[in-house]
Design goal:
single chain, mainly alpha
Length: 68
């Protein structure tokens, strides 16, 4: 992994990258689940709106995410 990712050259370690990846994943999973609830007010019968906000959140997250 060192040769492929050049970890020491970039001043990082395998542990640091794993923790960073897990932290990012957990944060995004939380936001993707929470955002539709906040924006739709979790109204009864508002499944279509909730689904639309969920999809928009997923698309926006994917489009704006990139590797450094």
């Amino acid at each position: 992994m060192e040769k492929f990712f050049k970890l020491s050259e970039n001043g990082t370690s395998v542990r640091t990258e794993i923790v960073a990846g897990l932290t990012t994943f957990m944060t995004m999973a939380y936001i993707i689940a929470l955002n539709p609830n906040l924006l739709t007010g979790w109204r009864a019968g508002g499944d279509d709106l909730w689904n639309a906000v969920f999809l928009a959140t997923c698309l926006a997250s994917g489009i704006t995410s990139r590797s450094a």
